[in-house]
Automatic annotation (TrEMBL):
Pfam families: BPD_transp_1. The chain crosses the membrane at residues 37-57, 91-116, 128-148, 154-176, 218-238, 250-268. The keyword Transport applies. GO terms for biological process: alkanesulfonate transmembrane transport. It comes from the Bacteria. Its main location: membrane. The keyword Translocase does not apply. Belongs to the binding-protein-dependent transport system permease family. One of its GO terms (cellular component) is plasma membrane. This is NitT/TauT family transport system permease protein. It comes from Pseudorhodoferax soli. PROSITE patterns: ABC_TM1. InterPro entries: MetI-like, MetI-like_sf. The lineage of its organism: Bacteria, Pseudomonadati, Pseudomonadota, Betaproteobacteria, Burkholderiales.
C-alpha cells in the first residue's frame, strides 16, 4: 500500500525538463562565497538607503534619529576633538579582559563537568541557576565590593560570560563519541589519559566555537558595565550623547561596537579554521 501511494505521488508530480537548471532559491542549497558577500553587502546598502530616505526626507525628526550624513559628521568630531579612539581602546580592553578571565575559569570547569558525572551533578544546578541571572543585576553589589573602577567593569563581563561557557563546554565534552573512549580504554589508557588524549582533543573545535559565540555576548555586557561610574569607553560616550540628545553620536557608537564585534568574530573564525582544519573533513 505504501509503495503504491509513493508511486502515485511520484507520477502526479511534474518532471523537471532534462537539462534545465534550477532557478530561484532552493532550500538548503549553498551559495558561493562571492554571492554571500554581495548579498550581505546588499542588505547594508538597503538599510542605509531606507534610513536616509526617512531622515533626509523629513519623515523623522532629527531629534529622534540623525541622518547618515549627520552621523558621519559627528563621527569625525568624535575622533578629531573628543579622543574617541581612547574610548574604543578602553572598551576593547574591558571586553577582552573580562572574557579571557571568564574563559580561564570556565573552560577547565566545563571540561571537568563534561568528563566526570559526579562533578556535573555537583556543579550543574548552581551553574544553571546563575546562567539565568542578568549580569546587570550584580552591578550594585559589584560597586559595593569593587568600587567603580576597572575591576567592577571586568567582573560584570566575567559574570555575564563565565556560566555560559561552563555549560556549553560541558555539553561539548560530554558529547564525545563513546566508541573512541572505549577504544582508548582497550588500548590501555587510564581516566586522566582519556580526558587528556580523547575528550579534550575531540571537543577542542566545539570549545573554540563556544568561545567565539560567548565573545559576541560579552560585547552586549560592556555597555551595561560602562553606564555607571565610567569616565571612558563607548558606553560612556553613548550616555553623554543621550544627555545632549545627540543621536548621531549614539548611532555611531552602536555601529562601532557592531563593527568591532564583527571583526573579532571573523578573526576568531579564521583562527579556529586554521587550528582545527581537520574538524571539517
Amino acid at each position: 500500500m505504501a509503495g503504491d501511494t509513493t508511486r502515485v505521488l511520484s507520477a502526479s508530480l511534474p518532471a523537471a525538463p532534462a537539462g534545465r537548471r534550477r532557478r530561484g532559491m532552493v532550500p538548503l542549497e549553498p551559495v558561493s562565497p562571492q554571492a554571500r558577500w554581495l548579498l550581505g553587502l546588499a542588505f547594508f546598502v538597503l538599510f542605509v538607503a531606507v534610513w536616509a530616505f526617512f531622515t533626509l526626507g523629513g519623515f523623522v525628526s532629527p531629534t529622534f534619529l540623525a541622518s547618515p550624513i549627520t552621523m558621519v559628521q559627528e563621527a569625525w568630531l568624535l575622533f578629531t576633538e573628543y579622543g574617541f579612539i581612547h574610548d574604543i581602546g578602553m572598551t576593547v580592553w574591558r571586553v577582552l579582559g573580562g572574557f579571557i578571565l571568564a574563559a580561564v575559569v570556565a573552560v577547565p570547569l566545563g571540561i571537568a563537568m563534561g568528563a566526570y558525572k559526579p562533578v556535573e551533578a555537583f556543579l550543574e544546578p548552581f551553574v544553571s541557576f546563575c546562567r539565568y541571572l542578568p549580569a546587570s543585576a550584580f552591578i550594585p553589589l559589584l560597586i559595593l565590593w569593587a568600587g567603580i573602577g576597572e575591576t567592577q567593569k571586568l567582573l560584570v563581563i566575567f559574570i555575564g560570560s563565565v556560566f555560559q561557557i561552563i555549560l556549553m563546554v560541558a555539553v561539548t565534552v560530554g558529547g564525545a563519541r563513546k566508541d573512541l573512549v572505549e577504544a582508548a580504554y582497550t588500548l590501555g589508557a587510564d581516566s586522566p589519559g582519556i580526558v587528556r588524549r580523547v575528550l579534550i582533543p575531540g571537543a577542542a573545535p566545539g570549545i573554540a566555537e563556544t568561545l567565539r559565540l560567548v565573545l559576541g555576548w560579552a560585547w552586549t555586557y560592556v555597555i551595561v558595565a560602562e553606564l555607571i561610574g565610567s569616565s571612558s569607553g563607548i558606553g560612556h560616550m553613548i550616555t553623554d550623547s543621550q544627555a545632549l540628545l545627540n543621536t548621531g553620536q549614539i548611532i555611531f557608537g552602536i555601529i562601532v561596537i557592531g563593527l568591532i564585534g564583527l571583526v573579532s568574530d571573523f578573526i576568531f573564525k579564521a583562527v579556529n579554521k586554521k587550528l582545527f582544519a581537520w574538524a571539517s573533513l
